[in-house]
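Just curious: can you write a single protein's sequence together with how it folds?
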Amino acid sequence: RDIIWAIDSRPETLENLLLRVQDMAAGACRGGQISFCFHLPPATQLPSRNLQPEQRKDLWLLLKEVVQNAIKHAGATEISISTGYKSGMLEIVVTDNGKGFDPSRKTTGKGMST
């Protein structure tokens, strides 16, 4: 279902994408008994323009990866996603209470090195 949605060529609103992210993250957190909080501004505070399919796909994959990393690698028990739209810019802040990482440490994986 996610693959079909991701390759769908029809534009989608930012609100619909964020609601889908909320469902994905809530489901992932439920599976690991992780507390999840999602803050979405009222639809009137979000731009009414549509996202192009590539924008939608990129945001989706990025946020899905962030949530999965917080669960799998950080060992988080709490994850929060806050969204907003300020001065024409989309702002998405993802926080967790996991163990974190040292950004100066070299890794062999693809994660933070790319």
Remarks:
- Strands lie at 12-13, 35-39, 50-51, 78-86, 89-96.
- The chain has a mean pLDDT of 87.
